[in-house]
């Protein structure tokens, strides 16, 4: 952003701009995503928009950040850091969280993933660290340990592999419009369980 909103009124203006931009981007796609239309839908002047965002890419980055926050919120709802639940139920809840996070606005998600020239997600280190931590907890508790226990390097690698596999499958399903199908959930649960149980057996 060009400048951070400090007053409540300024924050409200930025919220209105980003919400309007979200609708425009999902409906029009990146090629037809313009600051003039965003300002018109938001009910603000183009000059007001440029006070906070230097260009449409900066607005898209703000939209992505909100999406990433929604992803973490959906995964939080599925958290079981204690490992008290049976593994199958824990994985089912986790998969439900991942699917829910990517089902919030599938049209928008497809545009963000496939069309917008966003910076690498590593440019959002806070999100990436917390996102990987969720997978690391799932991996660690599936073997009866904790995310901070011995074998942390192995758990870190496993978390990255598992998150890449699940995210790839979910993004592909989102492009096809298959996220809501029971079959997708079933197969994702099967994939994650098979991976975690194989790691369990290797440690026994």
Describe this structure in words.
- The protein contains 9 helices and no strands.
- By secondary structure, it is mostly helical.
- It folds into 2 domains: 1-54, Homeodomain-like (Arc Repressor Mutant, subunit A, Orthogonal Bundle); 65-203, Tetracycline Repressor, domain 2.
- α4 (56-76) runs antiparallel to α5 and α5 packs across α8.
- The longest helix is centred in the C-terminal third of the chain and has 25 residues, at 152-176.
- It is elongated, with a radius of gyration of 19 Å.
Key descriptive features of the protein:
204 residues, mainly alpha, Arc Repressor Mutant, subunit A, Tetracycline Repressor, domain 2, 2 domains, 9 helices, 0% strand
CATH architecture of the largest domain: Orthogonal Bundle
Query: What proportion of the residues is helical, as a percent range?
Result: over 70%
The count of β-strands is: 0
Strand content: under 5%
The major pleated sheet works out as: none
Distance between the termini: 51 Å
* Low-pLDDT runs: none
Give me the secondary-structure category: mainly alpha
**Rg to the nearest angstrom?**
19 Å
Compute the number of structural domains: 2
Helical segment tally?
9
SSE succession: HHHHHHHHH
Q: Return the average pLDDT rounded to an integer.
A: 87
Q: What is the general shape?
A: elongated
What is the highest CATH level, the class of the largest domain? Mainly Alpha
The CATH topology label of the largest domain is Tetracycline Repressor, domain 2
């Amino acid at each position: 952003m060009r400048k951070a909103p400090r007053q409540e009124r300024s924050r409200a203006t930025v919220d209105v701009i980003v919400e309007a931009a979200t609708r425009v981007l999902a409906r029009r796609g990146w090629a037809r995503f313009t600051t003039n239309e965003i300002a018109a839908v938001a009910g603000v002047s183009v000059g007001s928009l440029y006070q906070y965002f230097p260009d449409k890419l900066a607005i898209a980055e703000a939209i992505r950040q909100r999406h990433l926050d929604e992803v973490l919120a959906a995964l939080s709802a599925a958290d079981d850091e204690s490992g008290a639940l049976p593994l199958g139920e824990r994985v089912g809840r986790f998969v439900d969280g991942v699917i829910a996070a990517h089902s919030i606005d599938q049209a928008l998600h497809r545009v963000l993933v496939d069309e917008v020239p966003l910076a690498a997600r590593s440019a959002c280190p806070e999100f990436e660290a917390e996102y990987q931590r969720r997978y690391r907890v799932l991996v660690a508790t599936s073997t009866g340990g904790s995310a901070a226990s011995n074998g942390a390097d192995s758990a870190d690698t496993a978390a990255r592999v598992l998150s890449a596999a699940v995210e790839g499958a979910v993004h592909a399903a989102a492009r096809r419009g298959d996220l809501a199908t029971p079959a997708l959930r079933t197969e994702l649960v099967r994939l994650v369980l098979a991976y975690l149980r194989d790691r369990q057996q290797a440690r026994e």
